[in-house]
Amino acid sequence: MAALPYDASRTALFTPQNRPTLFIPGQTYDVHALCVEAARLAYVHAENGGAELQTLTDALAIVGFEPPTCFSDPTTGTQGFGAIRQADDLALLAFRGTEPNEFTDIATDLKASLVSWPESAGRVHDGFAAATRSILPAVKQWLAQSHGQLIITGHSLGAAIACLMASVCKPKTLVTIGCPRVGDAAFKATLDEIDHTRFVDCCDIVTELPPEIDGYVHVAPMTYITSAGAIDTTATDATISADRAAARTAYLCDYAWRAGTVIVRDLADHAPVNYARAVFS
Description:
- The protein is of the alpha/beta class.
- The chain has a single domain, classed as Alpha/Beta hydrolase fold, catalytic domain (Rossmann fold), CATH 3.40.50.1820.
- 37% of the residues lie in helices and 18% in strands.
- The chain has ten helices and ten strands.
- α7 links the parallel β7 and β8.
- α2 packs antiparallel against α10.
- The longest helix is centred in the middle third of the chain and has 19 residues.
């Protein structure tokens, strides 16, 4: 498979579901590729039924999953899906991130005060907690009917929800893409025993929000994706800082001035497909 090119378009950032699935029949995908694409597919409005549900169903079928179960709460604007793969007894949960044209998502993101999370422990982002609670009963009901090894994933707001779900449901694997800070150190401790990969794509500004104040910490060390789209497990603070500075300068020359592109790399790097290029090759 040819490497995915960097995509600076507004479409990639704001409507990631418009791109056809990256899954190709006959290909085998590791857990990271599976989760990154599932997190992007969570933006497909499958909860509406019809063609959109069929789009998600067809994409998941390529990698052996049965038709998905959709989770949706219109009050909080929270969505996700669960799917089962019988071949290896795998249960997959994926949650949708922020959609900029959805007021409920913006309202969720802005409720950033830390509140108690008695579902596991610690204090967490108020908006993320409310979003998670709105679909938690439906997710638990679905899990009670499945017996597979559980993997949870999500992008952006969906990554935060994935962390909160993981603190309750205790999956085998948690993969978060462009995840903001979710809670405090006591909450982080509830995820310490879970196999968790937290992907950060170069300059992605969402991964630095909310600021590290009032007790906010990241739930896991980052797995850094370089400006060239490669995973660097040995990156130091110095090499990351230099890579980001060079990436921002190059972006101004190569993309910022083009019609239809995102103005700054710090936002463009948040697009799900720009995470996918690190795991699809």
